[in-house]
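Structure first, sequence second, as always.
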């Protein structure tokens, strides 16, 4: 009696060993999730590097306090100025403060030698990451130079060009790897489900022979594959979250690159990817066996 029940369970439509399928899909989604985390942290690092770009705006001499305040307000209103905690990243550096900094760096008392302070008051502007490209920075420099009271605008152009060029190359390489990895994951999940459904090919044919419609045959397989994709996505997301928390605990510097919003979007994407690929792979495989002749099934 027990053997008979066991046999019936084995022959139940769509009832193939799902633990192996869930494990394989989870592993594939976890790998793509890890690479997705790498992309998120690389993007955040790129944004931080770009937002560290500063422009020194040197001012005319003998400007009044009112003129200085008006200029600071004008700079803060520029769309290309970075903001942090709703505060414009505009910093005033007086010529006396600049002289002290230079004296500490060089250990040479140039004030005594020259008899006066040749430096100028300046505003240091931190540029928003979206405007940190080489062409945009040149336009920003020209815009700042047209401001009344500005003597000269400087930034380390060669260094910034090198940074932008390297960041662009790294982004292209990472996106290329991401595209290849996604393709490999899709193929892996598709093949896993095809192998799982291979054992069901004769049952599918038997259901056809007794008059079952294609929809009736496909429905349990599609439901099972969809739930497998969802469960696999949730497990992969949980593993990814655990890995992320462990990495943040062990390497505290990674907290600076943390982006919870994009990370949660990535986890949601893993669930969607698992669900969609599972459904489509199962749909294609079942339709393939439905169209095969009996000789082709062997």
């Amino acid at each position: 009696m027990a053997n008979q029940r066991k046999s019936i369970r084995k022959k139940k439509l769509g009832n193939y060993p799902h633990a192996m399928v869930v494990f394989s899909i989870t592993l594939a989604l976890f790998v793509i999730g890890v690479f997705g985390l790498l992309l998120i942290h690389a993007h955040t690092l790129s944004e931080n590097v770009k937002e560290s770009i500063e422009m020194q705006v040197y001012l005319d001499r003998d400007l009044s306090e009112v003129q200085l305040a008006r200029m600071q307000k004008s700079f803060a209103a520029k769309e290309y100025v970075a903001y942090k905690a709703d505060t414009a990243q505009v910093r005033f550096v007086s010529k006396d403060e600049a002289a002290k900094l230079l004296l500490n760096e060089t250990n040479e008392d140039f004030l005594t030698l020259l008899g006066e302070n040749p430096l100028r008051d300046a505003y240091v502007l931190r540029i928003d990451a979206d405007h940190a490209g080489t062409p945009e920075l040149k336009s920003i420099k020209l815009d700042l130079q047209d401001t009344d009271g500005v003597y000269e605008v400087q930034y380390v152009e060669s260094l910034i060009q090198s940074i932008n060029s390297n960041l662009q190359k790294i982004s292209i390489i990472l996106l290329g790897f991401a595209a290849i990895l996604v393709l490999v994951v899709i193929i892996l999940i598709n093949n896993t489900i095809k192998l799982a459904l291979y054992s069901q090919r004769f049952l599918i044919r038997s259901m056809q022979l007794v008059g079952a419609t294609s929809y009736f045959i496909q429905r349990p397989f599609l439901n099972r594959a969809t739930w497998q994709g969802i469960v696999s996505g949730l497990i992969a997301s949980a593993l990814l979250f655990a890995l992320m928390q462990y990495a943040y605990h062990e390497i505290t510097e990674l907290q600076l690159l943390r982006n919870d919003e994009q990370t949660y979007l990535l986890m949601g994407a893993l669930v969607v990817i698992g669900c969609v690929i599972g459904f489509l792979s199962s749909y294609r495989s079942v339709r393939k066996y439905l169209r095969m002749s009996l000789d082709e099934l062997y």
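Margin note: The CA atoms of residues 134 and 161 lie 6 Å apart.
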